[in-house]
Amino acid sequence: MPRPSKIQLNREGRTLTLQFPDATFVLPAELLRVLSPSAEVRGHGAEEPKLVSGKINVGIETVEAAGRYALKIVFDDGHDTGLYTWDYLYQMGRDQDQLWAEYQRRLEAAGAGRDPDVGVVRFV
């Protein structure tokens, strides 16, 4: 996967725009944070990734190059591990709708939410 020709951080809009040769993707900070490729989120081995909730207001502090193959993203909640390879970022952009839908399904199944100040009440 070629690297993006342009990377633009919009702190106010909490997005990261990546321009690849064949596509441009605008990725929300929340999606990048909850689907971090870090071991903390992805787990170790075959286990299901950790569900990260309450990140609707997360922002990106900085974006740093990690060699010629990835980015290191530092979030304003302190999370700063995991390298976002060009392939992973391209996949996230390409499959964004599907990834959001799956994330929201997992949140609902766990009785969790995107907003850290709003709990989900379930009646049984």
Automatic annotation (TrEMBL):
Residues 7-90 form the Gamma-butyrobetaine hydroxylase-like N-terminal domain. InterPro entries: GBBH-like_N, GBBH-like_N_sf. Coiled coil: none annotated. It comes from the Bacteria. Keywords: Iron, Metal-binding. The keyword Cytoplasm does not apply. The keyword Transit peptide does not apply. It holds the Pfam family GBBH-like_N. PANTHER family: OS02G0197800 PROTEIN. This is DUF971 domain-containing protein. It comes from Biformimicrobium ophioploci.
